[in-house]
Amino acid sequence: MPLQGRVGRHTRQGGRHCQNWIKDQQTVIDLLNRIAVSDGGTGGSLTGKINGRMVDGMASDALYSAISRFESKHFPGQTSGFVDPGGRMLARMEALAGAKGRVPDSDDPPPDAPELPPESVLDILRRNVLDESRWQGRYTAGERVAFDPLVTMAVRHIDSLKSQGFDNLGRPVELFGRAHVFREYVTAYIDPSDRTRVLYVGKDQVLGSPRALPEMRYGSPVELHADIVTEKLGALLLYNDGACYRVFPYRRGGIYSLGRPYGRTTSLITHAP
User: Fold this and answer.
1) Nearest-CA neighbor of 82 among 26, 131, 12?
2) What predicted TM-score, i.e. pTM, was given to this entire model?
3) What is the per-residue pLDDT across 83-94, written as a single tens digit (0 to 9) for each?
């Protein structure tokens, strides 16, 4: 059962994810599930899903833990945290699972690990787009699932750029979704008589009024030093340094600051100013 890339995480590099192609993850999961728990396997209990689905480029906590347990049992002290294509870990799994192959002697010298190319900005961005850990506990599962279409579009966009030989976005920030982007000062608040409607007040206005949402954007560039305001739909911001930010519905924030570690949105006020 050949692998195209590594599966798991780099234990010695702070848990950084390996390639973790879904097909490769499924191969390792199937092998571990066919191995008894007493032999370091999972005995059929492992799914490898994150929030109910397999995620390309990310090994679930359960899969990483299962690989690490198997490694500790059969290769104590190695502590790599991943299964290499053509490596001793994979051969041992295949042998114990009943697949063809020799059980390597634990005293065999480990094969030279293939030299992996350094991660590009797009590689980092792709992983960050798929990473939901930042939003768990802050938003409900339903609110997070609503971002799946935008996430899917963003990943396809990134993969298209990579296939063309690019290693970054080529512009400071891009937007997926429908949201207002303001360069001028605008106050946004929820209409107290209709909590699904947002009203806006600019510096030359006295009374608030609704504004039509712009059309859906599919990776369109936006001004870095501007504010973003969402209504009933969320938006996804991609940054040229590999950062990304999910702007949930009825939130506002500065686009520049949202791309920094301290970036936060604020809820729209629920009364007229």
Assistant:
1) 12
2) 0.59
3) 998 889 999 999
